[in-house]
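Recap from last week: sequence in, structure out.
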Amino acid sequence: MRNPPGGRNARIMLLALAVDRTGTGLWAASSVLYLTFVTRLSAQQIGVLLGVAGVAGIVGSPLAGRLAGRFPVRSLLIGCHLLRLVTLGLVLVCTGFDALLPVVAVTYLGDRAAKTLEMLFATRAAGERRAAYQALSRSAANAGYGVGAGLAAIGLAVGTTGAYRVLILGNALSFVVAAVLVWRTGETAGSAVEVARSGGAAGGGAAPAAPVAGGRAPVRRAGPWRDRGYLGFALLDIPMNLDDSVLAVGLPLWLVNSTSAPHALVPAFLVMNTVLVVALQLSVSKRAEGPRGATRALLLYGVLMFACCGFLAAATLGGAWVAGTALLAAALLVTLAELMRSVSSWELAVLLAPQDARAAYLGVAGMSQSIQKSAGPPLLTGVVMAAGPVGWLVLGTTVAGLAVVQRRACARRLGIGSPRTGAAALVVR
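Predicted structure tokens:
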């Protein structure tokens, strides 16, 4: 953190990210209870509210990518922080479902847009060392989440309306501090307006590609929305993010409803995840840099998810001790899978995108995580867990198989193993 890739700008941005995620930890730990006990929404209304917000979040990534092709990333990110500051202020004064629905939806849209802009900032500030920067950002983010959740626990223990409102204000304050920190950075190199007119990101035109090795004439790219190879990557990246739903939804619900393990293990899953991500992310990223490392991490992700699902299925076969041990092993494996995914997904999204239209392409890639957050929980609760242990085995096998397909597609597009190397291997086809 003293000397991160990208220098002073990166150091300030990492601090801003940690502050932002501390506020997010406050919101994540208290939002459902706030909506239940303060605004008096029913469980069904909360479900619809968060579902619509998740859909709005999907729009945030491509929107951020499109705007980043025209305006400075730094200014857009400050705008996202200030937008969420306004919407959270409205959350405190809106009490009805109809009023809260658009407010929370815009909050989630701003959240996803901010994450895409942070990703784009890293590709510009850290350059070829973006994997190391990503590792630092993941560690900073998880540390922030942990601090936020810990502070939220104090407010939730008090349990009064005033305590809940203080937690929401704490999240709003984090946006103010993060915006000030981002303002202190300088605009990153290469952040002058990119020619993002390639494809749906900016209006359907095609930007000329950079010259390729061997003196061949440059090609014209159709843009991310007409680039079938990149869209295929983004589509397959959706199941490559299922570790998030398995940890947050699958593990605790499976423990409570289908095993005899003690309920006190549920917080242990999150503690284990937070500690391991903070401790191991940097060392893992060093082994997954570049095309070969990123594609190899994809295969490891598939293996780890298959093993995790196997332990979840086995958790129903014994008593409390067997179930508890199997679930803890599953939590460990899904955390290791998360470490692999966070590096491979990030690195491949950048490597597969043409440099002169990267903002638009990363906006499309960012949709994968948002879609998974909306579709993953219903998939687990309505299909996988409804099928019992067999459902977990089918899920693990499917994810492992799709990881192999994704790895082959990415290796072919990047030219890994072919005679072409260097810039020619990265031409978008």
